[in-house]
Amino acid sequence: MLEINTSKVSRWDQHGREHVVRVRRSGVQRTIRCDTCGWRQGAQFLPWLKAQEHLAEAHQATVDPSDA
User: Fold this and answer.
1) How many CA atoms lie within 13 A of 59 on its CB side?
2) Which residues touch 10 (CB under 8 Å, ≥6 apart)?
3) Considering only CA atoms, which of 15, 46, 50, 16 is closest in space to residue 33?
4) Which of 27, 54, 58, 61 is surrounded by the fewest CB atoms within 10 Å?
5) Angle at 9 between CA 49 and CA 34, to 5 degrees
6) Model pTM?
7) Cβ(51)–Cβ(45) under 8 Å?
8) Which residues of 45-62 are buried (b: 16+ CB within 10 A; e: fewer)?
C-alpha cells in the first residue's frame, strides 16, 4: 500500500510567479520547507496554515490557484 508523506501549499504573487511550500510528514512531526527561499521549520500542529503565513509574509504570495 502506498503511503503519501508529502503535500504542498502553493500561492501566486502579484507578478504571476508561483511559490510552493512543501509539508513532509514523518510520524507525528511535520517539516515545512519553501522551494523559493529554502526556509524550513518543524511544525507539529497546523503546518499548512504556517506555510500559508510564510508565503504571504515572505513572498507576498496570496492568490490561491485552487480558487480559480
Assistant:
1) 25
2) 18, 19, 20, 21, 65
3) 50
4) 27
5) 90
6) 0.85
7) no
8) eebeebbbebbeeebebe
For residue 68, the SS3 value is coil
* C-alpha cell read off for 53: 503565513
- Cell numbers for 13: 504573487
Give tens-digit pLDDT for 8-62.
999 999 999 999 999 999 888 899 999 999 999 999 889 999 999 999 999 999 9
* 6's grid cell: 508529502
| Cell reading at 18 | 508561483
Coil, strand, or helix at residue 54? helix
Residue 4 phi, psi dihedral angles, 5° rounding: -95, 120
